[in-house]
Design the sequence.
C-alpha cells in the first residue's frame, strides 16, 4: 500500500513477479538401477523416476527423451499428479549372456527459451534364467589305460561349461546306464569335478574298450 498526505489517500499497488526460465529440470537421484529378467516379454513397461523443475507454466517440464539403444523405447505420459512422466517399454528381448547390464540416459526437457534439461543415468541389470544347456569342451573324449591299473587311478577329467550364472550354471556329472552296460561298476565319476577314476578291475581279454 502507498499513503499520500494532505489530504491522506491510500492506494493499493500490486506487483506481479514474472517467471523466467532460470531453473533446470533435475532428478532427486543421479542414478536409477533396477532388475529385469531376460525372459521378459516385448511390450512390458517399467515406470521411471520423474524430474522436478522450480519454474512454472511454459518453463516447467514438458517432455522426456531416452538415449538411443536397441532394447527400449520411451513413452511419455501427460497429466496426473506429476504432470509429465515417462515409462520404459521393452521392444527387443534381453539376453544376459550377451549383455548383462544395459546403461541408458533419461533426459527431462522444459519448455523455456532457451530450453533447459537434466539427466538421469539408468542401469538395467539383466537377471539370468536357465536358458542354456551345459556343453563339453569336446564332443568325444578318448584315453588309454593299462589293464590291472590300481583302483583310484585317474583315467580322464571331463570339462563342461554353462553360460548361465549362479545356481543355473552349477554342473553335476553322472554316468548314463545303457542296457546291461553300467560304467559305474568299473569307473567312479566325481559328480562335481568330472574326474573319472578306476573303481573295478580292468581286464583287456574280458573288455578291451569302454564307452
Sequence:
Amino acid at each position: 500500500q502507498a499513503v499520500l498526505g494532505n489530504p491522506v489517500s491510500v492506494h493499493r499497488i500490486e506487483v506481479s513477479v514474472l517467471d523466467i526460465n532460470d531453473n533446470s529440470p533435475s532428478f532427486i537421484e543421479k542414478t536409477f538401477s533396477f532388475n529385469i529378467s531376460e525372459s521378459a516379454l516385448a511390450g512390458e513397461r517399467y515406470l521411471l523416476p520423474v524430474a522436478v523443475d522450480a519454474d512454472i507454466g511454459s518453463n516447467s517440464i514438458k517432455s522426456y527423451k531416452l538415449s538411443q539403444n536397441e532394447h527400449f523405447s520411451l513413452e511419455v505420459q501427460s497429466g496426473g499428479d506429476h504432470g509429465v512422466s515417462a515409462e520404459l517399454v521393452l521392444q527387443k528381448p534381453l539376453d544376459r549372456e550377451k549383455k548383462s547390464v544395459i546403461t541408458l540416459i533419461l533426459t527431462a526437457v522444459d519448455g523455456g527459451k532457451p530450453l533447459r534439461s537434466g539427466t538421469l543415468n539408468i542401469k538395467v541389470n539383466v537377471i539370468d534364467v536357465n536358458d542354456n544347456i551345459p556343453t563339453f569342451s569336446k564332443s568325444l573324449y578318448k584315453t588309454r589305460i593299462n589293464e590291472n591299473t590300481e583302483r583310484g587311478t585317474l583315467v580322464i577329467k571331463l570339462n563342461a561349461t554353462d553360460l548361465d550364472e549362479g545356481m543355473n550354471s552349477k554342473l553335476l556329472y553322472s554316468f548314463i546306464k545303457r542296457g546291461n552296460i553300467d560304467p559305474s561298476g568299473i569307473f567312479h565319476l566325481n559328480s562335481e569335478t568330472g574326474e573319472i577314476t578306476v573303481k573295478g578291475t580292468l581286464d583287456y581279454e574280458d573288455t578291451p574298450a569302454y564307452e
User: Anything to note?
Assistant: The chain has no helices and 14 strands. The chain has a mean pLDDT of 89.
